[in-house]
Write a structure and sequence with these properties.
The chain starts with 14 loop residues before the first strand and ends with a strand. The protein is mainly beta. It has a five-stranded mixed beta sheet, with no helix packed on it. Strands 14-15-11-10-20 form a five-stranded mixed beta sheet, with no helix packed on it. A four-stranded antiparallel beta sheet has the order 1-3-7-6, with no helix packed on it. Among the domains are: about 90 residues, Immunoglobulin-like (Sandwich); about 80 residues, Immunoglobulins (Immunoglobulin-like), CATH 2.60.40. Helix content is about 0%, strand content about 35%.
């Protein structure tokens, strides 16, 4: 019986595979796989090859892929891009190389790097429409290039005047409008108004849990996708503990899908439970980062930054 082993690695015959060779997201770790083969197409089953992965964009951004030898003839390559754009992925083994084209898309929206811009953020005229824009960006300050980000804008001022204002995605030619939203408002009174712009991230209500029944001793915050709980005699959370009474305040905004009347109803399970439902003027769930943390992202809050230009 003769055991025939594969010959040495022939990179021209070896393969590279994985979605990360063609598309990736800023701030999210991506990976692809190398499979070593000999000149006859036989699969190499041992490690030891020295690969180099160099990723560069036409704009000058450069990444080096980390190569892990799995010692079975396969190699895992990982990288985390920070800047959107088109890149060349170059994989080298000695003097041999393979090249693919990679598109890095912007990551999830980040409120603190997004920017509001326009004269109407500081001055307006009663009875006349005023507009400003929001430029959505990710944690690495890449311009968001698609629709789908949700913002809430509210204007409040003298005499209790307040408006929840809609916004529209521009997102058309020229490219400078990608990721840009326009906001319009109109007030009927003169005076000093507060313009509050927040980013709505995730589906749910922002809840504050208190270790008393007077909304005084807050011990936990959470975004609850559904407000439908039955704790019985237990505590809603270990931070609240077993106490004589606790209270929870949920805040959020509703985005209607249709033009119609909507009725909000509450229901409690026990006679000693109380609930109050009312309108609100501020507060919503804050933004989050991608599930895989960016290498050096900005700290993303809930409010876009006013432009300094």
């Amino acid at each position: 019986m003769v055991t025939v082993k594969p010959d040495v690695t022939d990179f021209a015959v070896s393969t590279i595979a994985g979605e990360a060779l063609s598309i990736a997201t800023a701030g999210v770790q991506s990976e692809f796989t190398l499979q070593a083969k000999d000149a006859w197409g036989n699969t190499i089953t041992e490690g030891g090859d020295q690969y180099l992965v160099h990723i560069a964009s036409v704009g000058g951004s450069v990444l080096e892929g980390a190569v892990k030898d799995n010692t079975d003839g396969t190699y895992k390559v990982t990288y985390t891009p920070g800047t959107q754009g088109t890149y060349d992925v170059n994989v080298y083994l000695g003097s041999s190389s393979k090249t693919t084209t990679l598109l890095v898309e912007p990551g999830s929206i980040c409120a603190s790097t997004s920017v509001t811009n326009g004269l109407s953020l500081t001055v307006g005229t009663a009875g006349y429409a005023a507009t400003f824009t929001i430029q959505a960006k990710d944690a690495f300050k890449n311009l968001r290039t698609k629709d789908g980000d949700d913002f809430v804008m509210r204007v409040t001022g003298p005499g209790g005047e307040g408006h929840n204002n809609p916004m529209a995605y521009i997102g058309a030619s020229p490219n400078t409008n990608l990721g840009r939203y326009t906001v319009a408002y109109r007030t009927t009174k003169s005076g000093t108004f507060s313009v509050d712009v927040k980013m709505a991230s995730g589906n749910g209500l922002y809840g504050v849990y208190y270790r008393d029944d007077t909304f005084s001793n807050a011990v936990k915050t959470a975004t609850d996708g559904t407000v439908d709980f039955n704790w019985g005699s237990d505590s809603p959370d270990s931070k609240v503990g077993i106490v004589d009474g606790f209270s929870i305040e949920w805040k959020g905004y509703v985005k209607p899908g249709y033009s119609q009347t909507t009725t909000f109803m509450t229901k409690v399970g026990e006679k000693d439970e109380r609930v109050k439902l009312g309108s609100m003027t501020s507060g919503l769930s804050t933004s989050g980062l991608p599930s895989r943390r960016p290498a050096r992202p900005a700290r993303c809050g809930s409010s876009p930054t006013p432009s300094t230009t």
